[in-house]
Amino acid sequence: MAEYPDPDDYPSPDLRPFTATDAATRELPDFEAEGLLEGLDGDARAARIKLLTELYLESGVDLQTLKEEVEANRLALLPADIVLGRTSEKYTPNEIAELAGLPVSDFQNLIAAVGLPRPTPDQRRFDEADLMAARRLRRFQEAGIPTENLLAATRQVGSSAARIAQAHRDLVASDIVAPGADEYDAALQLREASRSLLPLAEQAVDYALRSHFLDQIRNQAMAMANPGLLGSDEGKEVSVCFADLVGFTRLGERAELEQIGTVAKLLESVAIEVANPEVRLVKTIGDAAMLVSEDGAALFDAALRFIEVGQEAGDDLPALRVGVARGEALHQVGDWFGPPVNLASRITETARPDSVLAESKAVDAAGEEAFRYSRVGQHKFKGLDRPVKLYRVRRASER
After folding, report:
1. Which residue among 111, 163, 307, 362 has its CA within the 20 to 30 Å range from the CA of 301?
2. What is the largest CA-CA distance in the chain?
3. List of the chain residues with pLDDT < 70
4. What is the 3-state secondary structure (H, E, C) of 285-326?
5. What pTM does this model have?
6. Is the CB of residue 363 less than 8 Å from the CB of residue 373?
């Protein structure tokens, strides 16, 4: 559970933590009369009453919240949510902004950048963790970092954090609740799993973040030895690759959400497998993955491996199509921007399933030693003045 700040930090006395004294003076409501036991009897009824009693008296959950959780069929998840802080509704964005010393719009934008619904100024659903996040944002601003850059970085972190949370949840989901557990036992098992597993997940993320940050700092230090390589106006000549799942949109129209999530995770695992120190996985966006490399041949090798590894996955993964372009691009806040990024994305839409399609600059950068090319004509892309020459890419060993 989060530690509470000094009582003087609370905007209102009504927002202080629920205490043992509060529990001792609280009267237990009639759960049956309130409609919280409908359809239950025997052991299931007894487990529900026990869970409701502990949530109401020991955790201080109000009756309305209990009703909402029962109606949504997620009461057993509530103890875990309390551990994770979901029910700590102490501050509004206006109060957070006042305590952190920043405009309320900055805090609203921060929450939206994380990937959560943008709150209204008076929406009371935030706690100390949110206040700390707002104060961190303020310290970054005081250090001179533009707010738009901070929010751009937060979007990257939020997107990654969502995938990391899902990965850890899926890793343990099937083993958390014992078979045959009643609602009360399931709730306790989920709560204890959240209490013990969240720190482990945070440590794993911290380890990966520190490792990558140190690696990139080393690379940055090496670049500083070469004048002109740094600065927001400096671009790099890179090859950019997009790999796209064919028919993913149609899949989404007819498949269960669980199946869609499985396909997206499988695509990400393939992208991680084909990436290497010379070829960076920039991001995955639902049905597509983006790779970047200064080495044109290494990028083509990864692009072809995308197709090969995807085919090895069989029917679990829809066919892939890959587009590659080369040119000068800017690297900012974990992402790449520029003409080759846009062109690679558009070429991908033109490629046939299980094929790699590239434009002439990317072909020239990769060379002919390891690859062979078949010209497929010219294509006019929106926003470009001239048609683009496109080539089908294969390994030189292919016949």
Report:
1. 163
2. 82
3. 1-25, 85-89, 163, 165-175, 212, 215-234, 247-265, 286, 316, 333, 399
4. ECCEEEEEECCHHHHHHHHHHHHHHHHHCHHHCCCEEEEEEE
5. 0.48
6. yes
- CA dihedral of 116, 118, 123, 124, whole degrees rounded to 10: 30
Q: What is the pLDDT of residue 399?
A: 64
How many Cα atoms sit within 13 Å of 29 on the Cβ side?
17
Quick one: 80 exposed, middle or buried, by C-beta within 10 A (0-12, 13-18, 19+)?
buried
Dihedral sign, CA of 245, 247, 249, 255? Answer: negative
φ, ψ (nearest 5 deg) of residue 204: -65, -40
> Based on the number of CB atoms within 10 Å of its own CB, is 69 exposed (0-12), middle (13-18) or buried (19 or more)?
buried
Cα–Cα nearest to 10, from 111, 126, 140, 122: 126
Instruction: At 399, list the tokens.
Output: 């016949």
For residue 138, the tally of other CB atoms under 10 A from its CB is 16
Please determine, looking at this structure, whether the domain spanning 236-395 carries the CATH number 1.10.357.10. Answer: no
CA 336 distance to own-chain centroid: 18
**pLDDT computed for residue 168 by the predictor:** 61
* Token reading at 203: 């440590």
Q: Where are the domains of the chain?
A: 1-212, 236-395
**What is the C-alpha to C-alpha distance for residues 359 and 344, in angstroms, rounded to an integer?**
9
| Distance separating alpha carbons of residues 127 and 194, to the nearest angstrom | 18
Token code pair at residue 90: 């102490």
Residues 6+ apart with CB under 8 A from 349: 244, 323
Give the per-residue pLDDT at 220: 52
Query: Quick one: which H or E segment has residue 198?
Result: helix 183-224
Q: Is 85 left (phi over 0), alpha (psi -120 to 50) or beta?
A: left
Q: Is the dihedral of CA 177, 74, 197, 210 positive or negative?
A: positive
Query: Measured between alpha carbons, how far is 312 from 316 in angstroms, rounded to an integer?
Result: 10
CA atoms of 237 and 232, how far apart (whole Å): 15
Three-state secondary structure call for residue 356? strand
The percentage of residues in the chain with a pLDDT greater than 70, rounded to a whole number, is 77
Amino acid at 196: S
Smallest CA-to-CA distance from 194 within 184, 183, 186, 206 is with 186
